Amino acid sequence: MSLPPLALIKTAKDLLELCQPQTSKEAPKGTKRSPEGVSSCQCTLKKAMGWTSVSEGDWPAHFKAVATLRDPEVYEPTFEEHHPCGTHYDSADAPIALGFFPTNRCTVYECTACEHFALRYTEFGGYYVDPRARLLNPQLIVKDTIDPDPSA
């Protein structure tokens, strides 16, 4: 039995829509799924505000993959990062820009307990494999970046 393919999210607008509460009974728009509310969950990712190493053994079993940000049409996504305000790779306030590393290599997961989202990708080094994750903060999603040229 094969799993259905994950939905491909190509725009910031689509990613923001995914982050919105699904019913009117939930918290006001834009607040339910921001990381500030994750403290009520027992999840091991609640401290992963910036990119954090999360081994397979530490990955929460109650997270389910819901979408991918990796475009299958792009053979080798860029390693260029987007930090216009002086943040760096593992800053908790680093922007989430879909066309830039590492967001362009991520799968989006949802916590089935508290409905928060996390981004996850695998860092491949010369002699290691390191799964990394961060909570998805909708306030950090960049809406107007120009994606780097994939042919460069």
Describe this structure in words.
This protein has 152 residues and is mostly beta strands. It has one domain. The protein is built from one helix and six strands. It has one helix at 12-18, and strands at residues 7-8, 52-53, 63-68, 107-111, 117-124, 129-135. The chain has a six-stranded mixed beta sheet with strand order 1-3-4-5-6-2, with no helix packed on it. Strand 5 and strand 6 (129-135) form a beta hairpin.
Tell me the Rg in angstroms.
15 Å
Whole-number average pLDDT? 83
- What is the number of domains? 1
Characterize the largest beta sheet: strand count, sense, and whether it forms a barrel: 6 strands, mixed
Strand order of the largest sheet: 1-3-4-5-6-2
What sequence of helices (H) and strands (E) makes up the elements? EHEEEEE
Sequence stretches where pLDDT stays below 50 over 5 or more residues = 24-32
Q: Find the count of extended strands (DSSP E, 2+ residues).
A: 6
Q: Which of globular, elongated, flat, extended, rod-shaped describes the shape? A: globular
Head-to-tail CA distance between termini: 39 Å
Class per helix and strand makeup: mainly beta
Helix content: under 10%
Strand content is 15-25%
Helix tally equals 1
